[in-house]
Task: structure prediction
Amino acid sequence: MNEESKNLHIGAKIRKYRRALGLNQAQLAEKLGKSVTYINLIENNQRRISLNLLLALSKVFDISVNEFIIDADHRILGECMEILADAEFDHLGITNQDIKQFVDELPQMANAMVAIHQKYTEQRAENNRLSQVLLNSGVLQTPTHRAPNEILIEFMQNHKNYFPSLEVTAQEIRQLIGGNTTKKAKLIEFLNQHDRVQVIEDSPSIQQSYIRHYDSERRVLHLAENLYSHTKFFQIAYTIAWIHGKNAIMELIDENELHDSAVKPLFMTMFANYLAAAIIMPYNQFFTSAQKNRYDIELLQNEFRVSFEQICHRLTTLNNPDEQWRGVPMHYIKTDRAGNISKRFSLSGIPISRLGSACPKWNMYDALQRPEELVIGVQQFPDGSAYLNISQAIRKGQRGFMGHHSTVAITIGCDIKYANKLIYADKLDITDKRTFKPIGIHCRICEWQNCPDRTTMAVQNKNAYNPLSRGLSAFDPVNLH
Result:
């Protein structure tokens, strides 16, 4: 994206942060020692903004300068392109360039459009479900207007997956435990002696249908015996988080008014998972180790005795507002073998499909074909934005031939401008764009040409097909000019 486009976004952001503080343009102008006319011009993108002014603005708004530069622009652009690629809009002749201009000039309107479309799609899905209920039984249930998982993802995105109150609670719990919280035996000892909770590992022959069950009345934590060791360790930490952190969890529920019966249990579980991770991977220690080891996931696994997935989750939470304790802005994607994206989070700005699967050229799909192998590469979108992606397929669940398990791909990564902070870039030539792998959000809105993996016609190519010629795929037009 060019400098002019970035300036457009900064103008809109200055207006947003000013309004959030309840300041008018005159008050902001006074704080900056500028004229009201000048403030009006920069908010309307009529003046370029110097670094000194950005530094002054960051002090007034109490944010990092990076907040003006690092944002979800690419993510919002991708979602707008995905929405407007629907066949319903074909007759309008909207091009990807039109959408880019819309997002650049009216970013708040673009966000509003994404939010409205999300509510529309969720309500449509709910109406379909209720129609089926009526057909089958005639019983009408109270509708949930938004998918709980989408509410959770939006909440994490808005809070940058960082919850300071839970970090403080985790520190208090670690002090209560005492000693090294990276040892399973220490956590079991604490549960037994402090909370009078017995930890029992059940044989698969007794029960195979669960991973963890905490019987609060009998004060017994049941774990499936055939779990992977890191899974047992985390589930024990989760139980400690639930027992000792429930008040902090419920405070977050109350503060954010997350009382709807469809979403409350999901958020309680998410907060407990976050707290468990913070107990066994203390923020400052984890951040320091991540910086020292340049985000080497294997070394972090060895130090904290947790899984690849758990390390990747924790890396996405290193978003302390204090810049000296803030990590690389990262994205996280979890994909199943059918290509469905079940979890997504992006501070890097990478656009991730909200509607099922993504482009088959993404790292994660290569990783699913090469289990337990790290798949590393730089991948570039048609707009020129590029990201370092690290993917690995992992096996989750229970061990053993009869154990219940699944295989998923975990992807974590960052904008290419931060790639040198990660050890994984060392074996890549990130200065040679010819080595970047072209990817898109999904085929219908992808502008790349000559793609053998294209599975559907792109919106911008709908009139570019010739029955006498065939491109690299059945949906790829041939340009002989």
About this structure: The beta strands are 198-202, 212-215, 220-224, 330-336, 341-346, 375-380, 386-397, 405-415, 437-438. The CA atoms of residues 312 and 436 lie 23 Å apart. The chain has four domains: 3-108, 157-324, 328-448, 449-481. Residues 3-108 form a domain with the 434 Repressor (Amino-terminal Domain) fold (CATH 1.10.260.40).
